[in-house]
Amino acid sequence: MDFTSLILALVIVCCFCQCLSSGNDTITPGQFIRDPHTLTSANSAFKLGFFSPQNSSNRYLGIWYLSDSNVIWVANRNQPLKKSSSGTVQISEDGNLVVLDSNKRAVWSTNLTHNIATNSTAKLLETGNLVLLDDASGQTTWESFRHPCHALVPKMKFGSNQKTGEKIRITSWRSASDPSVGYYSTTLEHPNTPEMFFWLNETRPYHRSGPWNSQIFIGSTEMSPGYLSGWNIMNDVDDETVYLSYTLPNQSYFGIMTLNPHGQIVCSWWFNEKLVKRMVMQRTSCDLYGYCGAFGSCSMQDSPICSCLNGYKPKNVEEWNRKNWTSGCVRSEPLQCGEHTNGSKVSKDGFLRLENIKVPDFVRRLDYLKDECRAQCLESCSCVAYAYDSGIGCMVWSGDLIDIQKFASGGVDLYIRVPPSELEKLADKRKHRKFIIPVGVTIGTITLVGCVYLSWKWTTKPTGNVYSLRQRMNRDHNEVKLHDQLPLFSFEELVNATNNFHSANELGKGGFGSVYKGQLKDGHEIAVKRLSKTSGQGLEECMNEVLVISKLQHRNLVRLLGCCIKKKENMLVYEYMPNKSLDVILFDPVKKKDLDWPKRFNIIEGISRGLLYLHRDSRLKIIHRDLKVSNILLDGELNPKISDFGMARIFGGNDIQTNTRRVVGTFGYMPPEYAFRGLVSEKLDVFSFGVLLLEIISGRKISSYYDHDQSMSLLGFAWKLWNEKDIQSVIDPEISNPNHVNDIERCIHIGLLCLQNLATERPIMATVVSMLNSEIVNLPRPSHPAFVDRQIVSSAESSRQNHRTQSINNVTVTDMQGR
Q1: Is 529 annotated as a binding-site member?
Q2: Residues 665 and 676 reside in one and the same domain
Q3: Nearest residue to 158 (alpha-carbon basis) of 244, 72, 232
Q4: Please, which pLDDT band fits residue 175 given cuts at 50, 70 and 90?
Q5: Which of 96, 135, 502, 715 lies in the 20 to 30 Å Cα band around 510?
Q6: Any idea which residues carry the catalytic annotation?
Q7: In this structure, are strands 513-519 and 506-510 parallel, antiparallel, or unpaired?
Q8: Where are the beta strands (DSSP E) in 113-161?
């Protein structure tokens, strides 16, 4: 080798070493990283390098956790490099960290102009924070955590400076393939009562979390204390900064909270570097900022969802009736402010309590106890409401009350100020109620005795001689005023809507009658359940369904619109579900292709939320008793609605378990304690939910059997493969995607916990929902499930054959005696 060749080789080696040195966690002056090389943190969890988003050829410098599908920060988000341009990141001559294109043109820089050392070092820390250090002093002159992109990660300080007004803003990507600054952002506002605000185009609020109470944001019911474990609001007195920060419980866990291009919060959790859950925080109309206007309250449990607060009326009645509620409400009568004497009568303003409320915006915090809080608000003529939370203290409001939401559970009590006239109206109602209650009890007792007698008379009559639905309801003391609770449709109206119950409009047929699609004169589509005229048993269950479902309102429960009663014609009218029932799509080899994993998980979550509402959050505690895939209806967006409440059982407030001599339900979905002993508890529905989980994930019916001798049920098949760590064989090939396998395995795990043989070992639905949302990260190991083989299920069937002939999955059992 000649001298020239030797020198050239040494130069190449030196340059190569300069680039290779970037494989450590630092970049020093003279070193660089060139695409596709990366910088790796000391714990190997984070990398700094160039990446391309999905469906994009542009290149960006970013930091990611484990893989570039988990990007937490982007440098040149608004100035991408073309794929043909090889990017480089290095320390510039003035000490800034810069990204250069192939022409050595800077497309991004830390852009420090003062207090900058020309001898700087860039380092990727084990937290994922990229810092620029002054080599002489060792001080940090710049850090990526102070300039976040779309993600909030542990150790990052997300907050605002009270002195300078500077705020750290997290901003969404423009789209999944474009990391440039998007339309949505979030900041931490109101340092005295910190809460997260979400903005559209940085100026228009579209959602807020409610104030922080040392455990949770009280206006975000999905953020339970378990979910927010590790999050805390800190106050840096020296820096005059209030910030939200997250501390990991231990090094085995890691979490990322991102703001996606649709303005939704996405939470992802890892355990031992394995993704265990990714959850999208869904928003409803009531979550939108100020949806019902000033002095309006929004509740997804009510219809319409907007209403004026007590003592207020719509500001624009015409717009309000059009369901344009943004103009809000105004007082019906002005406040009095202070005591007024009229003869011997002294009157003054007072307060009405609203429960389970997301408190309004523009709160002012005072250092008073609860009783003092009320007194202080009453003394100030400008104070229109107050609330007290043990984690926040006294909160008061003046001016408009904006962005109020009523929850099914959670929130706080809000006390709104009203004039004496409103208090007098309330007092009159209470007096009226005191009179009504004893009269009602007397009438109810007489009615109940009559019901018992008529029921006995009815059960002794031939099956074909049935009472009308109107007679059955009018004699039930729970439905004295049917017209007030449920609209009545005329028979002629439903005949016209269904084209005289034409067979072309028949959606399905069951033991108690047929269901037809219909269209009312106003174009509204409906589903009509027409009860068979000879089905006495079906009439009773039809009446039970009316009594139950007319009291329930939830987005994941089918909505009963009304009924029709004419002689022997008894019909129920429901909202129409264009995608019919889940089994129609799930078990169809062609249609099931439309059910990818995100859609299936949305269905699973929706069913769980509906059951939780029935068991815990509704006015009544309801056990469904016949939860199965054909009783899950799907709307136009494939959102699930639990239907068919004919078998439902209403529990008293403190009841946990009861016995029944009439076992109803569908084989395969019934747990052993119910099928054999007639024990009814919420664990019955939990078991059925576990079966549903396996059916949704596997795409197979519970009535299917497996193994070489056809002796194993779907439950046993899943249990066997779970223990053999071959869970992939359970998963429907249509959703067998490596990106989702961890989420699917977790759902199977939850399903097996719901299917455990002993009811006491099964979780309640509140726990199941927390597991699905990964509020509970570590799941216990499930024990042996019930009914794992065909012989056990067959024995359950054969023990009932003297009563009625059934199939395993398609027919609901309605006349069995519990042992």
Answers
A1: yes
A2: yes
A3: 244
A4: confident
A5: 715
A6: 626
A7: antiparallel
A8: 120-124, 130-134, 140-143, 151-152, 158-161
Q: Residues 708, 590: one domain?
A: yes
Other CB atoms within 10 A of residue 273 CB = 11
Measuring CA to CA, how many Å separate 507 from each of 313, 410, 494, 510, 514? 43, 39, 15, 10, 8
User: What pLDDT was estimated at residue 807?
Assistant: 32
| Residue 153 backbone dihedrals phi, psi, to 5 degrees | -125, 165
259 and 322 housed in the same domain: no
The residue with tokens 């909202």 is 575
The total of other beta-carbon atoms located within 10 Å of residue 733's CB is 8
User: For 474-515, what is each residue's pLDDT tens digit?
Assistant: 444 344 344 445 678 888 999 999 999 998 888 877 656 788
Given 575, 606, 625, which residue is the final one in a domain?
575
Both 505 and 617 in a single domain?
Answer: no
Say yes or no: 665 and 566 in one domain: no
Cα dihedral 702, 707, 709, 710, rounded to 10, equals 10
- CA 150 to chain centroid, in Å, comes to 21
**Residues pairing with 563 in the sheet:** 488, 572
Q: Which domain holds residue 397?
A: 286-418
How many domains are contained in the chain?
Answer: 5
pLDDT at res. 639: 94
pLDDT number for residue 537: 46
- 618/634 Cα distance (integer angstroms): 22
**CATH code assigned at 672:** 1.10.510.10
Buried b (16+ CB within 10 A) or exposed e, 552-576: bbbbbbbbbbbbbbbeeebbbbbbb
- Whether 239 shows a pLDDT value over 80: the answer reads no
Residues 758 and 612 in one domain: yes
- DSSP H helix total and E strand total for the chain: 16, 50
- pTM for this predicted structure: 0.55
The residue type found at 743 is: D
Task: Mark which of 575, 604, 633 sits at the end of a domain.
Answer: 575
What does the alpha-carbon distance between residue 232 and residue 245 come to, in Å, rounded to a whole number? 6
In a domain, 163, yes or no: no
**Residue 482 in 3-state DSSP?**
helix
Q: Hey, what amino acid is at 554?
A: H
* pLDDT top residue among 398 and 7: 398
170 found inside a domain = no
Tokens of 328: 């809000």
Task: Give the pLDDT of residue 221.
Answer: 74
Looking at the fold, whether 273 and 320 belong to one and the same domain comes out as: no
Query: Is the CA virtual torsion 457, 460, 462, 464 positive or negative?
Result: positive
Q: Which two tokens stand for residue 683?
A: 């664990």
| pLDDT per residue as tens digits for the range 256-284 | 999 998 888 988 989 899 988 888 777 78
Residue 608 host element (H or E): helix 597-612
8 Å CB contact between 526 and 561 = yes
Longest CA span, the chain: 119
CATH of the domain at 37: 2.90.10.10
Whether the CA torsion 743, 744, 745, 751 is positive or negative: it is positive
Give the single-character DSSP code of 286.
Answer: G
Q: What is the CATH number of the domain that holds 404?
A: 3.50.4.10
426 in a structural domain: no
Does 9 fall in a domain? no
Instruction: Give the type of residue at 183.
Output: Y
